[in-house]
Specification:
The complex is a heterodimer of chains A (363) and B (597). By secondary structure, chain A is of the alpha/beta class. Chain A has 12 helices and 7 strands. Chain B has 597 residues and is α+β, with helices and mostly antiparallel strands. In chain B, helix 5 crosses helix 6. Chain B is globular. The chains are: A alpha/beta (363), B alpha+beta (597). Chain A: Pfam families: NiFe_hyd_SSU_C (PF14720), Oxidored_q6 (PF01058).
Chain lengths: 363, 597
């Protein structure tokens, strides 16, 4: 316990290098040329707490200066002008940087002969497209931190479903789950298809506070997900959870009740979206009528398909809860009826019947 | 020849320089543009467009439950995934023979309207307009900026900026007033989207057969109040864009040639009419014409057809420069459509995708994008249609058909009138988009804010009708069905950047074949088997160069304006090398490019 708030007088900006071993300026090298849809970048622009412009304009106190390099948002016209910082990082001339990967990582080893599944710029020597895998191989060992944005980059996602031709995987599958960055961090996985905007920004900002030297590394679980975001299930934060407890199940999508019989996997999926909403508390999934298809999970999508059928496990749990839930529902109905009546002493007659007694004392 | 004819000019001996931009920034996905530029005659003489991403949706969807298609295909695109889900649900509804309740259609239309408003806003103001902002104009055509400083903005009363240069300054990235406001507006409009479709960009509440969105009065109240909060921003955007684009024509005579190509536009229609749509193929012509954005194919300014059945039957997926094996020797999935018309082997229903990764060779195979074309029976030509970036084709097609007649939007046969109600600071406003003289870069960009207004106006009508239904107790939003053993379906819709169709074949209750055709393959396609270039290639090839920098400092802004005017979105479906990179940001501001310190 300390009474030192850590703030300094405005006139005395602490000399950071002496006060704490922090980083003053850091570049975010974002590569969405994994097999992605760019949906995580687009989602990032939806965040308001904080927003991406807050971050790059330095409006969040205590963070290093952030240089964001992202293809979708870059004012550069593209090509080598845009690639310059990536090339500098490969040469070891740009440090420190945070590498953000968006999209699944394909398996180049299954290609016989020439070709590539996804590329990012060209090889200056040959003029041929430079596969994404080359960039990861070059940049991951030099990165101060590595962040995987979205389920494709964290676990493989949609493009890695059964029958896929590209053999793609998540970043940790590619680099190894025991990968450690220059800053001593494991890969930071922020799953979601796409990322919930504020989940991602909050995690990134935590990593940046850590870079500045004012916070420990973000706490991650065994799948390298931020614990405070993915430690609970959808069901535990769902508006419709109480319908489940009363065994009130929707038979189709017209109903405001629990969706577990119509395909919702919420009870077993690690995600905070029903609690947090999608943007500014609005939207989400089962709380607003969309079945949870498990899009934040390592098993996504195959473990949850066909999406619109009842998950096998819920057949048993909903059967067990039925007798309890239906009794409870009826009892609550009775009580609800009772408390829907006003007491008898509220009337406009000539006699007060509230039990008023000015001389009442407890004996 | 379906390409655009070159302009006759007096030629000097050419001074050719290879220039390429790869990856292209401020778009969605992997795109490279490779050109040969003649600096002596100041024009682009050759252009190839390439995409360097393959994921294989049509491959891994085979054998899956068809009801999963809407959830899966959303993941094709990270900015308009909902357009895919919607289109997939349209195709499934045809296959299952199910018609969602009318309120569900309204909810989908409201969600899609919010998507158009959001997506066009963030794309136009935060991505496209960086090419028109003060910093970029200063770095590429300083004389034009000097003139802009002296030019009064004619529509200043509406948008509040005195000179054209003031407008350009407002779009400077991360610092300009409008740039920042647009990001905020893009959030408010995405909240509107989430109210209807659950989340952005991959919606959670859309199902084949309807929606799961609870039609509470509150959902519509929350949507309406947000819509009214951005309505003046929409009016201002139109005025600012018109001012800047009119100025470009005036300040640089001949700018109409930038990105101009022969008018070959396609629009597949958007916003179903809940009263008449039944998703049957047999009646698709009539309910297709009832959409609140009219489908149509426009060739040289003439409406060739607005019949979705004709449009569907004319689709041809060509190869020629793409990394795939041909499928013509496979057996067809669909020989005849439900009306008995023969279906071509090159139709998406019969396509098989066999990827063959290989070296990139601009004289042979150079892209992961195939070459969709529309077969014009009249002339026996495979037309490389483009979408005009989406809005240009939608407005043009709606205007020419003269069908749409609603309280807020009216087609006149030669224009579209859009009325927006009174906002916080601006009065009730009627905008009129008129069919332009050219299909070019400026007109593609100009159409975009007009379509934002169009979508906002339609949203008002959908809201009124939906709230009327809710008040009347008509709150059903989902219709149940059985997945048939065998069926075919197709869905036609407008993704934000243009035509979108999904083609589905079901056998044994499983997906036997599924091919989505989004707008970007149409726009970004490489040369087909006949050597016909795709629209980006065609539009850039032969365009004049107005940039004042020589080959060493050349940025290619005119070329980038052309490419971005199509609203590229490559995950659904171009890269440029610039000589010496030069940063466009000022000191004391974050850096995003070459000057990495």
């Amino acid at each position: 316990m300390t009474t030192n708030s850590g703030t300094a007088e405005v006139s005395k900006e602490p000399d950071r290098a002496e006060d704490r071993q922090g980083i003053d300026e850091i570049t975010i090298l974002w590569i969405s040329e994994g097999m992605s849809c760019d949906g995580d970048t687009v989602s990032l622009t939806a965040a308001d707490q904080p927003s991406i412009e807050d971050l790059v304009l330095g409006l969040i106190p205590g963070l290093p200066k952030v240089n964001l390099v992202n293809k979708v948002l870059s004012p550069s016209l593209g090509g080598e002008d845009f690639l310059a910082p990536y090339r500098a990082a490969v040469r070891g001339e740009l440090a420190p940087f945070i590498l953000v990967i968006e999209g699944s990582v394909p398996n180049q080893n299954i290609i016989e002969g020439d070709g590539y599944w996804t590329s990012f710029g060209n090889d200056p020597e040959t003029g041929e497209p430079q596969p994404l895998n080359w960039w990861i191989d070059q940049l991951a060992p030099k990165a101060w931190a590595v962040v995987a944005a979205g389920t494709c980059a964290t676990f493989g996602g949609i493009h890695a479903m059964s029958g896929n031709p590209t053999g793609c995987m998540g970043l940790a599958d590619y680099l190894g789950w025991d990968y450690t960055s220059q800053g001593g961090l494991p890969i930071v996985n922020v799953p979601g298809c796409p990322i919930q905007p504020e989940n991602f920004m909050e995690t990134l900002v935590w990593v940046l506070y850590h870079a500045a030297g004012s916070a420990p590394p973000p706490p991650l679980d065994h799948m390298l997900r931020p614990q405070w975001l993915f430690g609970k299930t959808v069901h535990e934060g769902c508006d419709r959870g109480s319908y489940y407890e009363q065994a009130s199940f929707a038979k189709d999508y017209n109903s405001p009740k629990c969706l577990v019989k119509t395909g919702c996997w919420g009870p077993v999926v690690n995600c905070n979206v029903p609690k947090r909403g999608w943007m500014a508390g609005i939207g989400g999934c089962p709380n607003v009528g969309g079945i949870c298809i498990g899009c934040t999970m390592p098993g996504f999508p195959d473990a949850f398909m066909p999406f619109m059928d009842e998950p096998p496990g819920s057949t048993l749990s909903s059967m067990v809860i039925k007798p309890y839930g239906s009794v409870i529902r009826r009892l609550r109905g009775v009580t609800n009826e009772l408390v829907n009546h006003e007491p008898r002493w509220r009337h406009n007659k000539r006699k007060l019947t509230s039990g008023y007694d000015p001389h009442w004392r407890s004996s | 020849m379906t390409t655009t004819e070159a302009r006759p000019t007096e030629r000097k001996p050419p001074q050719l320089v290879d220039m390429s931009w790869d990856p292209i920034t401020r778009i969605i996905g992997n795109l490279g543009i490779y050109t040969k530029i003649d600096f002596a005659n100041r024009e682009v003489v050759e252009c190839h467009s390439t995409s360097s991403l393959f994921r294989g949706y049509s491959v891994f969807m085979k054998g899956k439950d068809p009801r999963d298609a809407g959830f899966i295909t959303s993941r094709i695109c990270g900015i308009c995934g909902d357009n895919h889900t919607t289109c997939s649900d349209y195709a499934q509804q045809m296959a299952y023979g199910v018609k969602p309740p009318p309120l569900a259609e309204h909810i989908v239309n409201l969600g899609e309207a919010a998507e158009y408003i959001f997506d066009h806003t963030i794309f136009q103001d935060n991505l496209v307009f960086v090419d028109f902002c003060e910093a970029m104009v200063k770095a590429t055509t300083p004389s034009v900026l000097a003139r802009a400083e002296r030019t009064e903005a004619p529509r200043g009363e509406t948008h509040g900026y005195r000179t054209i240069a003031d407008i350009m300054r407002a779009f400077n990235p991360f610092e300009g007033e409008v740039y920042k406001e647009a990001l905020k507006v893009s959030r408010i409009t995405r909240e509107m989207f989430c109210l209807m479709e659950g989340r952005h960009v991959h919606p959670s509440t859309l199902y084949p057969g309807g929606v799961g969105t609870m039609p509470q009065p509150t959902a519509f109240t929350d949507y309406l109040s947000r819509l009214m909060r951005v309505i003046d921003f929409v009016k201002k955007s139109v005025a600012m864009n018109d001012d800047v684009f009119d100025f470009f024509y005036e300040a640089m005579p001949g700018y109409e040639e930038v990105g101009r190509r022969r008018t070959l536009l396609g629009c597949w229609g958007a916003f179903q009419n809940p009263a008449t749509v039944d998703y049957r193929y047999e009646t698709m012509n009539s309910w297709g014409k009832d959409m609140y954005v009219t489908p149509g194919i426009i060739v040289d300014g003439e409406l060739v057809t607005n019949n979705l059945v004709d449009i569907n039957l004319g689709l041809r997926i060509m190869l020629g420069s793409s990394y795939y094996e041909d499928w013509v020797n496979e057996s067809p999935f669909v020989t005849h459509d439900p009306l008995g018309n023969p279906v071509d082997m090159r139709h998406p229903w019969n396509q098989t995708t066999v990827p063959v990764p290989q070296k990139r060779d601009f004289d042979d195979k150079y892209s992961w994008v195939m070459s969709p074309r529309w077969y014009d029976k009249r002339t026996d030509a495979h037309l490389a249609l483009d979408t005009g970036g989406g809005p240009l084709a939608r407005l043009w097609s709606t205007a020419l058909s003269g069908i749409v007649d609603t309280p807020y939007v009216k087609s006149t046969g030669h224009s579209v009138r859009i009325s927006l109600p009174k906002g916080e600071s601006l009065p009730e406003t009627t905008l009129e988009w008129r069919i332009p003289k050219w299909s070019n870069t400026i007109e593609r960009d100009r159409a975009r804010p007009y379509f934002v207004a169009y979508a906002a106006a339609m949203a008002l009508q959908f809201l009124e009708e939906a709230m009327g239904m809710v008040r009347a107790g008509e709150t059903k939003v989902f219709e149940n069905y059985e997945v048939p053993d065998e069926a075919i379906g197709c869905g036609f819709h407008e993704a934000v950047r243009g035509v979108l169709s999904h083609h589905l074949v079901i056998k044994d209750k499983k997906i036997a074949n599924y091919h989505p055709y989004p707008p970007t393959p149409w726009n970004a396609s490489p040369r087909d088997i006949y050597g016909t270039p795709g629209p980006y290639e065609d539009a850039v090839q032969g365009q004049p160069i107005f940039e004042e920098n020589g080959p060493d400092e050349f940025k290619g802004v005119d070329i980038m304006r052309t490419v971005r005017s199509f609203d590229p979105c490559l995950p659904c479906g171009v890269h440029m090398y610039v000589g010496k990179g030069k940063t466009l940001t000022t000191l004391h501001s974050p850096t995003y490019g070459a000057n990495h310190g």
